[in-house]
Amino acid sequence: MAEVIPHWLTKQADLHPNGLAIEMDNGEKITFHELKEKSEQLAKKLAGSGIKKNDRIGILATNSITMVAIIHALSYLGAVSVLLNIRLTEREMNFQLNDAGVSLLLTADSLQEQGEKTNAEVVQSFSEIKKLEQKEIELKKEINLADPYTIIYTSGTTGFPKGVVHTYGNHWWSAISSALNLGLKPTDKWLIPLPVFHVSGLSTMIKSVIYGMPVYLMKKFNTETMHQALLFKNITIASVVTMMVSRLVERLPEGESYPAHLRCLLLGGGPAPESLLEKAKEKKVPVFQSYGMTETTSQIVTLRAQDALRKIGSAGKPLMPAQLKINPLSNDDSIGEIQVKGPMVTNGYYNRDKENRELFDQGWLHTGDLGYMDDEGYLYVVDRRSDLIISGGENIYPTEIENVLAEIPEVKEAAVTGKADEKWGEVPVAFVVMNEEVQPEDMMNYLKKHLAKYKLPKEIHFVEELPRNASNKLMKRKLKVK
Amino acid sequence: MAEVIPHWLTKQADLHPNGLAIEMDNGEKITFHELKEKSEQLAKKLAGSGIKKNDRIGILATNSITMVAIIHALSYLGAVSVLLNIRLTEREMNFQLNDAGVSLLLTADSLQEQGEKTNAEVVQSFSEIKKLEQKEIELKKEINLADPYTIIYTSGTTGFPKGVVHTYGNHWWSAISSALNLGLKPTDKWLIPLPVFHVSGLSTMIKSVIYGMPVYLMKKFNTETMHQALLFKNITIASVVTMMVSRLVERLPEGESYPAHLRCLLLGGGPAPESLLEKAKEKKVPVFQSYGMTETTSQIVTLRAQDALRKIGSAGKPLMPAQLKINPLSNDDSIGEIQVKGPMVTNGYYNRDKENRELFDQGWLHTGDLGYMDDEGYLYVVDRRSDLIISGGENIYPTEIENVLAEIPEVKEAAVTGKADEKWGEVPVAFVVMNEEVQPEDMMNYLKKHLAKYKLPKEIHFVEELPRNASNKLMKRKLKVK
Questions:
Q1: Which domains does chain A have, with CATH numbers?
Q2: Percent of chain B, pLDDT > 90?
Q3: pLDDT averaged over chain A?
Q4: Lowest-confidence range among A168-177, A248-257, A335-344, B392-401?
Q5: Are A3 and B317 inside 8 Å of each other by CB?
Q6: What digits encode the pLDDT tens for the residues B124-138?
């Protein structure tokens, strides 16, 4: 029997009514009581739009207090938030809206135009919602941890994105496992420079209402703003990707350090180069490497501070109460597929029965990533699943780019691979074999129309043929560009 | 679907192998790795005794590392620990052993004789267990939170004790709700001066393996030992009952205080007099009042430090994720029965289907206690359930004593009530109406034979008749002795 708990925002509004819930980098602030009031009002306004329990509602927004309140509002109605990456193209967005059966799309005012270009039947901007009449309905007082709460799309090896369904329980257990690892202090304040439409940002907004902890939410990452916030805003923890660590370490003047209460920069979204971790160590920047994915509702393996020095390069140990095992590639190989299990792991993708059956092996999730454990049980990730490229914290599946390249009539075949990049960690690079010549600008224009900007190949190499092995299988590793 | 997590002790042995798990007041220490090894060895030795999953195994012991390891050992076998109060008489103990269907009783060496007097088919002392051969069986690697783990008996208004079944989930959620309230620091060390056969002691031993936190375990409460430990053993939290707070506040010299890292004396087992709380405040002893019972797997409502001053007398607010409501006695009364709900609340008593149906109202537990909430939602407990007497942290149900008194042929009728006591909080006092005269010593001897010492009436008043109302109902309140 799934556990039933009081609605977490209502509960925090009772426990910490005047406690700060969110502080934006533009100075806006909201307490837990105010956030609850705002979310309840939005829920009652949205109720007029006919939203029913389990309806999937699209959200297209950059980080803001209203965006977070809308996500909570939908929980008061029992509806499911489908969080859209604002950088998607029209085609990419329509795929997700259609796949999740979204008919109502809620957008930040500045993104209303972008929203209206999609196939969503109804598009409402946050300002329009605020103008609606409140419908006096009974809002949910309790949360059943088995119920679905959010959907975030992630691509896969096929190039067709799949919607990862997170239950309330997945979010709850993710928050608890993080607290059991990092501890929980009444003075904690967590900085989020990452989008709330990503699992890293979203999961921290939910930690906020589970812990009763303030979050410092950045509209958008900016080195100087974040640097100043770490210095002066009593931040104790921040979620980061490699690029941000790199910028911050560079920004921090030689011989200076962040305040001692900054106890963790939780590094997700792909491994960081050792040289960067060494630099961070020199400047006493407390980087905690971690491993996780949308399917695990953010980090599931984290390297603790006390191990940071002696285990550089490791993602750490699976959090309490997660489990991890390596499925060796061969009998005499310690490297194998990383499999994980735990109550923070999704039950599966939305409407993908077949993939879901393949995704799990008796409760163990196939991550598709390769890694090994050392003799003390620390995980080392060798290669992200298949040939996933992680660029500035965004997942890019080569197949998705290859599919669009293949739509260009002049392209005979194409392969995309990742290239190490100082700034973004990795960037996609394309290799194409042409049937006939075409202007590179024309190719790029086509790609720009159909691919989010971060997915655009940074280089296009025209080659005679793609490297294949004896059985004609593409040897992507041979395409690696140094 | 109930959640499955890795075995919590195995997990902590992996995460903090060299972390201190238990330190006894006699200086004995054990790390998480060693505690796991010891518990696994005991499990394999016990496996030879034919213990099967879900078997109820009695444990009769005072606090010790081996006692804790035995409780973990039983979890590796999937068996259920029935924790016996060592102060029970033979008759009381036999009732519980029989009721829970216990055939194997494990005892501390010093209590073996006491154990052998019971009806348990097999009695094994801890030393005898250590001498057994290990049976090579596969121990449990995972915990299903829905499975039962421990049974602790609590009396009821009928005078017949009932076994409260705690699932692993009840313990897990109790630990998590406490962490969400008190926070969680890597430097935390929790002192337990209470018996592990009580839910307060037991639940903290389980917090230890869920948090990876050291516990300072006292064999038995002693003012001087505890005072010195609070001063010199880096204790941050301690579980206490009123009597202990009283002794410590008295012991602490005027003008002195405990180290600043001592952040919480968690006060359970009945309300404390305001005068004592004021004294504690003067000496900066951080007392957190709380409300809970065996059925809620320890505290479910706690007054936080920041509210301690302005809400003296209140038990606080229900912990995240617990719920509380008052079922008013009448329409114009704010006082009513306290009802609670949450994943730390037991699913019911062992083998008591009828009582269990009455115990819950749509998931809400009837506590039988009376209280009210102020306009900010803080709970004030007015009267413990029915006429429960809480003496030195032990629950005493008057009916149980009355039943034994009624067995004495010369006693016509008897009523037992609580009397305020400086040292114990409350003590039981008996009022008896006699058929014919009997020597008070003879009466006491009979009571001593059948009642645990702490249940013995401290006074026996011989009266002509018991106060009854018009409908002949006993008016216990009129028997209150100041």
A1: 1-386 (3.40.50.12780), 389-479 (3.30.300.30)
A2: 70
A3: 91
A4: B392-401
A5: no
A6: 999 999 999 999 999
pLDDT tens-digit readout, B268-297: 876 677 788 888 989 999 999 999 999 999
Model-level ipTM above the cut of 0.95 = no
What does the pLDDT read at residue A472? Answer: 59
Mean pLDDT score of chain B: 91
Residue of A320, A344, A374 to mutate when probing chain B, most B C-beta within 10 A: A320
Q: Which residue of A has its CA nearest to B209?
A: A320
For A203-244, what is each residue's pLDDT tens digit? 999 999 999 999 999 999 999 999 999 999 999 999 998 889
With an 8 Å Cβ cutoff, the interface of chain B facing chain A consists of 1-6, 8, 11-12, 14-15, 142, 146, 169, 173, 176, 179-180, 183-186, 210-212, 317, 320-323, 341-343, 363, 377
User: In chain A, which residues have their Cβ closer than 8 Å to the Cβ of B176?
Assistant: 176
**B5 contacts on A by Cβ (under 8 Å):** 320-321, 342-343
Determine the distance in angstroms separating the CA of A355 from the nearest CA of chain B, rounded to an integer. Answer: 21
Tokens 């971060």, located at residue: A454
Contact A8 B321 (CB under 8 A): yes
CB contact under 8 A, A15 and B179: no
Name the range with the highest mean pLDDT among A129-143, A325-339, A452-466. A129-143
